[in-house]
């Protein structure tokens, strides 16, 4: 088959340079000197050559060089640079320990990660953040949220006011693969999307890939958000706490056995409902409305070549009214991971991953009924990194996922008047195999080429349906256990190149194809707990995205300023929308309600960034267009997608007023979303009803907002640290439209009027943080 | 059902946790070509059959209703002879003295300007109201306090049934929140059940008339779509669209051949003290 041929070609191609010289391998780990934690993403470069390598997510690096003397330089955000002279005449293991940049060093020129990383790396359209960087950015209710910070970058658009849902380069809300320690998170929001499930105290770093997506990732058509939890300090115990208006969190970390194993536990809970206890109304007093998160991680260095990690997440939203009614939803994930170093060149990561999202509506009070839905994954992942030589790094591996989706069930107790009903679960097996190589072709040219084979098979037991063109059920086929029903999918090429023009500029290009096999069905404007995921089947083809992008990256001398322009074009096949009035929940033949079409998006993203000095921050601008076309919608005419926003601007500025005071401000502006409004009215059933002729034919008013923040470092000693954060959301009180609805005028019911509802107008907040 | 619960949750959240602010704004809506609207109801009762014919009008226009005069309106059982309606007011067509029989398909034809718009609806058997019960609701946020009623019925076994409940207080229809009380027997086929209500509440002195309509599936779907685009719902559907009509040739509206049962009570007579 073609796939095998390509693997062989890659191997041959990669090996061709390997035998010509005597080469030795330098490998090891890079860790924080104080906590002993891995520093994934650290750049190790060889001075006066074009050789460099990046530490993998598990803190391991390997580079193979011809025999000789080298100056090795190590650079990472917020850490002091290290320079080491190495005489490479045999294979060597060197473990680097990096020291954090202390506050006192502020006015010295300290670069973040390798200063010219944006030019040297192959990655394009990628945004990396760690919680430290976002600490000072003002946010709604003072709840720091890495997703809300990501939404300030070009090409990543917020789904709605205060919402953690996001659209990447014209893709849908469900086209983002959100991974927490490799486990997919199916619903990343709390409280209808106003908060994300990621407690920033538990997060080590996060990377969002919107352009070039390496072959080890797949399954969602538009982007990957890869989030890693903190591993826990290997040397000392620390407690960190945050007290906020909406929620508080507490984290604890430390060694289990010094330098060999550690743990991290972090918990967060909101307490808005505690105030309800003082409400005059009895129903309110007995109402619960809160969410909580629990993150846990532990790791063990079994020996020099084996390391074991176990991590988990548990989060739930709860809403209960007396004992009458309860509604709760949330995610659970668990990851067990083994890192094994076969040799100084071959590194392996094996993971066993579990992920579950469910909601439950308990109406046992009056009706003795419980409703619910579950999506659950078991996932086995095997990745190899093979640091073949200084010019080639191969990655290959496989990923096998077993999905079980229970779209909805109604469980009635025997005394209930209702019946038990189950929309039959869907089971599927998703598999992927990939191989890729990162190759330095010449001093100036680096390329990445990879291929991922993505497959999806529906597996019995289950019912499968056939429909006619109008969505009427013709036939139901029931399949037995372990019966393979339909397999879909195909090869996904992934390409990227980096051409270094000069010392301070580079040209990059990339192409990806990605299949997406499970789809989110939602008919509302915000993420809701009852969103249903639907697997591909004989009626639902996988979504396929093809993205081409090019970018020009240029830094000022000494890399003090970074700037980039990226252009992209994305083509989306088999996009999903719904027939009018589609019932998406508790419907076993929901496939009949779907209509299929295509989408395309293109745009230009401009970013200008300053990473050092008293004033830091960035300015981003996106010019974009996002379209959809369905035969059965809008008379077959193409229409703008909801997230089609022509202009999108964000300005983020952080200024160090003094060593203890940091000021920050963000300003965002974007064209309003495309919306469907009536073009006429009529009377039916005694009510005035809008007449709709055009999908998304109107625009919401432009959105803009200024947020301000001030962080005061109250106390900082080696033993104890505390700080206050003050912020104002929407500082100039802009009434941004959350939605616009139309209704009859109260005085004159013959007349109609438009009503705008806005949510947040000047929201001040304060939070206190301590660490010891 | 679940989506309605989410809707309630959104309401409560917005009301308590966040300070939503509402204001009337100016918004330009472009005008479209007029569309034909037909609302046709026939029953098994002595009530006159009524068909309302109108056209759409500009959204911010002075009048909501734009009646159409001079249409030829008729009704027939699937294999029966057509009976013609009389226009009693502009756009209001009536047929008196005819009773439809449950268990048959009926067809309404409206002819205007050389185009005939037809729709078909099935008349289900009457499902009687067996009993009512009232319970007091304390109120919650901006949900008012008052009595809520459960309407008890025996759902016919073996058939798909769809219901709509209409409440009249002191002779006036009570639907201030724009809700349409619809029920499908998917979850209680063949059982005795009390059909509950959502936010509407009644007071002790109210004279309440409850009308239980037994409707067909297309009409049930029509009204659930209608509810989702009207009634000023907080949780807007991402893409509102015209409810799917059972009329052909692009007409908006619906034709419902329904049976109904009514019960009129004074609320306090039913409350157990």
Give an overview of the whole structure.
The complex is a heterodimer of chains A (772) and B (273). With 772 residues, chain A is mainly β. In chain A, 5% of the residues lie in helices and 58% in strands. In chain A, the strands form eleven sheets. Chain A has a 22-stranded antiparallel beta barrel. A five-stranded mixed β-sheet of chain A has the order 9-16-17-12-13. The mean pLDDT of chain B is 84. Chain B has two domains: 36-122, Immunoglobulin-like, CATH 2.60.40; 126-239 and 259-270, Sandwich (Immunoglobulin-like), CATH 2.60.40. Chain B is mainly beta. The radius of gyration of chain B is 20 Å and the shape is globular. At the A-B interface, helix 6, strand 26, strand 44, strand 45 and strand 49 of A face helix 1, strand 1, strand 3, strand 15 and helix 2 of B. Strand 50 of chain A pairs antiparallel with strand 1 (21-25) of chain B.
Question: Mind telling me the CATH class of the largest domain in chain B?
Answer: Mainly Beta
> What's the rounded overall pLDDT mean of chain A?
85
The value of Rg of chain B in angstroms is: 20 Å
Global structural class of chain A: mainly beta
Order of helices and strands of chain B: HEEEEEEEEEEEEEEEEHEH
Mean pLDDT of chain B, to the nearest integer, reads 84
Low-pLDDT residue spans of chain B: none
Instruction: Assign the CATH topology of the largest domain in chain A.
Output: Maltoporin, Chain A
Low-confidence stretches of chain A: 1-19, 103-113
Taking the sheet with the most strands of chain B, its summary is:
9 strands, mixed
Assign a percent range to the helix content of chain A.
Answer: under 10%
Helices of chain B, by number, come to 3
CATH architecture of the largest domain in chain B: Sandwich
Alpha-carbon distance between the termini of chain A?
Answer: 59 Å
The percentage of residues in β strands of chain B lies in 35-45%
């Amino acid at each position: 088959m073609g796939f095998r041929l390509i693997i062989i070609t890659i191997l041959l191609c990669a090996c061709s340079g390997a035998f010509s010289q005597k080469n030795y391998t330098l490998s090891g780990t890079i860790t924080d000197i104080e906590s002993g934690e891995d520093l994934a993403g650290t750049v190790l470069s060889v001075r006066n050559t074009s050789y460099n390598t990046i530490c993998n997510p598990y803190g391991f690096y390997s580079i193979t060089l011809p025999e000789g003397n080298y100056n090795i330089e190590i650079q990472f955000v917020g850490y002091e640079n290290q320079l080491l002279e190495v005489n490479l005449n045999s294979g060597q293991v060197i473990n680097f320990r990096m020291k954090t940049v202390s506050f006192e060093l502020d006015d010295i020129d300290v670069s973040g990660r390798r200063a010219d990383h944006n030019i040297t790396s192959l990655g394009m359209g990628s945004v990396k953040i760690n919680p430290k960087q976002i600490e000072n950015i003002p946010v709604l209710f003072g709840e720091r949220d890495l997703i809300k910070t990501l939404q300030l970058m070009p090409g990543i658009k917020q789904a709605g006011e205060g919402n953690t849902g996001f659209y990447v380069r014209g893709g849908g809300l469900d086209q983002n693969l959100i991974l927490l320690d490799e486990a997919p998170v199916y619903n990343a929001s709390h409280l209808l999307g106003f908060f994300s499930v990621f407690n920033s105290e538990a997060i080590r770093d996060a990377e969002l890939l919107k352009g070039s997506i390496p072959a080890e990732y797949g399954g969602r058509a538009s982007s990957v958000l890869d989030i890693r939890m903190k591993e826990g300090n290997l040397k000392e115990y620390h407690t960190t706490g945050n007290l906020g208006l909406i929620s508080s969190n507490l984290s604890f970390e430390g060694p289990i056995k010094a330098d060999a194993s550690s743990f991290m536990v972090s918990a967060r809970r909101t307490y808005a409902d505690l105030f309800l206890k003082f409400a005059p109304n009895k129903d309110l007093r007995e109402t619960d409305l809160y969410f909580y998160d629990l993150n846990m991680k532990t790791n063990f260095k079994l020996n020099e070549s084996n390391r074991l990690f176990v991590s988990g997440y548990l989060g739930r939203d709860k809403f209960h009214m007396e004992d009458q009614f309860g509604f709760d939803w949330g995610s659970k994930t668990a990851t067990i991971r083994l890192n094994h170093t076969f040799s100084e060149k071959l590194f392996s990561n094996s993971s066993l991953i579990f992920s579950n999202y469910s909601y439950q509506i308990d109406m046992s009070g009056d009706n003795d009924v419980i409703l619910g839905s579950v999506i659950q994954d078991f996932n086995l992942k095997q990745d190899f990194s093979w640091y073949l030589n200084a010019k080639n790094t191969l990655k290959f591996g496989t990923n096998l996922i077993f999905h079980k989706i229970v779209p909805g069930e109604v469980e009635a107790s025997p005394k209930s008047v209702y019946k038990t009903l189950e929309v039959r679960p869907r089971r599927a097996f998703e598999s992927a195999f990939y191989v890729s190589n990162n190759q330095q072709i010449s001093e100036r040219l680096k390329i990445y080429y990879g291929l991922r084979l993505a497959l999806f098979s529906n597996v019995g037991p289950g019912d499968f349906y056939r429909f006619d063109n109008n969505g009427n059920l013709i036939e139901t086929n029931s399949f037995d256990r372990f019966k393979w029903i339909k397999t879909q999918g195909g090869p996904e090429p992934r390409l990227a190149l980096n051409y270094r023009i000069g010392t301070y500029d580079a040209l990059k290009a990339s192409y990806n194809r990605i299949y997406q096999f499970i789809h989110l069905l939602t008919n509302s404007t915000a993420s809701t707990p009852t969103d249903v995921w639907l697997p591909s089947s004989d009626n639902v083809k996988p979504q396929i995205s093809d993205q081409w992008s090019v970018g020009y990256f240029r830094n000022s001398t000494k890399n003090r300023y970074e700037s980039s322009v990226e252009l992209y074009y994305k083509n989306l096949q088999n996009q999903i929308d719904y027939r009018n009035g589609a019932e998406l929940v508790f419907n076993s033949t929901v496939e009949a309600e779907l209509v299929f079409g295509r989408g395309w998006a293109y745009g230009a993203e401009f970013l200008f960034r300053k990473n050092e000095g008293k004033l830091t921050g960035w300015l981003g601008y996106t010019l974009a267009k996002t379209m959809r076309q369905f035969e059965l919608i809008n008379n077959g005419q193409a229409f703008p997608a909801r997230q089609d926003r022509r202009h999108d601007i964000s300005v983020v500025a952080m200024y160090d007023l003094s060593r203890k005071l940091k000021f920050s401000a963000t300003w965002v502006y974007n064209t309003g979303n495309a919306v469907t409004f009536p073009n006429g009215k009529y009377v039916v059933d005694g009510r005035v009803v809008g007449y709709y002729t055009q999908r998304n034919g109107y625009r919401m008013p432009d959105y803009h907002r200024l947020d301000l923040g001030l962080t005061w470092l109250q106390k900082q000693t080696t033993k104890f640290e505390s700080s206050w954060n003050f912020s104002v959301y929407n500082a100039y009180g802009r009434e941004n439209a959350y939605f616009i609805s139309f209704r009859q005028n109260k005085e004159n019911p013959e007349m109609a009027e438009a009503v705008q509802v806005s949510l947040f107008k000047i929201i001040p907040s304060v939070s206190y943080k301590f660490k010891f | 059902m679940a989506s309605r619960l989410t809707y309630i949750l959104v309401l409560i959240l917005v009301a308590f946790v966040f300070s939503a602010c509402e204001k009337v704004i100016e918004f330009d809506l472009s005008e479209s070509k007029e569309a034909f609207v037909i609302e046709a109801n026939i029953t098994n009762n002595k009530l006159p059959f009524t068909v309302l014919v109108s056209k759409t009008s500009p959204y911010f226009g002075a009048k909501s209703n734009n009646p159409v005069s001079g249409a030829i309106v008729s009704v027939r059982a699937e294999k029966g002879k057509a009976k013609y309606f009389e226009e009693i007011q502009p756009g209001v067509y009536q047929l008196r003295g005819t009773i439809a029989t449950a268990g048959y398909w009926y067809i309404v034809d409206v002819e205007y300007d050389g185009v005939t718009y037809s729709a078909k609806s099935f008349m289900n058997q009457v499902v009687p109201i067996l009993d009512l019960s009232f319970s007091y609701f304390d109120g919650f946020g901006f949900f008012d306090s008052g009595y809520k009623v459960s309407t008890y019925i025996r759902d016919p076994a073996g058939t798909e049934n769809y219901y709509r409940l209409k409440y009249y207080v002191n002779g006036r229809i009570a639907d201030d929140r724009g809700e349409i009380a619809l029920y499908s027997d998917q979850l209680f086929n063949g059982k005795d059940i009390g059909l509950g209500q959502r936010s509407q509440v009644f007071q002790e002195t109210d004279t309440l008339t409850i009308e239980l309509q037994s409707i067909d599936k297309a009409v049930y779907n029509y009204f659930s779509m209608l509810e989702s685009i009207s009634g000023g719902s907080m949780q807007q559907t991402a893409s509102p669209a015209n409810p799917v009509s059972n009329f052909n040739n692009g007409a908006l509206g619906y034709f419902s051949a329904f049976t109904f049962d009514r019960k009129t009570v004074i609320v306090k007579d039913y409350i157990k003290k």
